[in-house]
Amino acid sequence: MSASDELRLHISQVGDYAFRIEFEGTQLEALLTDEPAPLGHDEGPNPSRLLLAAIGNCMAASLVFALRKFRNQPGPITASVRATPERNAEGRWRIARAEIELHLAEPGAQHAQLERILAQFENFCVVTQSVREGIEVQARVLDSNGQQLHPPPQA
Description:
By secondary structure, the chain is an alpha+beta fold. It has two domains: about 1-45; about 45-135, 2-Layer Sandwich (GMP Synthetase, Chain A, domain 3), CATH 3.30.300.20. About 25% of the residues lie in helices and about 20% in strands. The protein has a three-stranded antiparallel beta sheet with strand order 1-2-3, with no helix packed on it. A hairpin with a 7-residue loop joins strand 2 (about 20-25) and strand 3. The longest helix is centred in the middle third of the chain and has 23 residues, at about 45-70. The relative contact order is 0.12.
């Protein structure tokens, strides 16, 4: 990844709360997401599960990267992610914290420089560190004529 690598997605509604996510500029298959009942039909993961999957996947990949950086040859890493939605002060559901448990395929003593690896691997995780620092999100709403409805255009 580099600063010039813009990440682009196209998301289209295909059902009540079901959306098709296309990963522009790639050969990746589209992903179907959906909300659980009673809103949706559980036809795919919902955005909260995707967020947790992204964090867990990124942390596992970062650990693999850090292990290999010090010339280790780790076996397959596995990860478990847990989170319980909570209501914030306004009563809105949020993911306030996530617990990630990463499992090495071999004893830790088999890895060279393990202390250094464990001290730095989380810093390689783009997703987790972005979430921890807070991602600025700017949203616009346009109507079918392309008129910007939100935020209101400045006069």
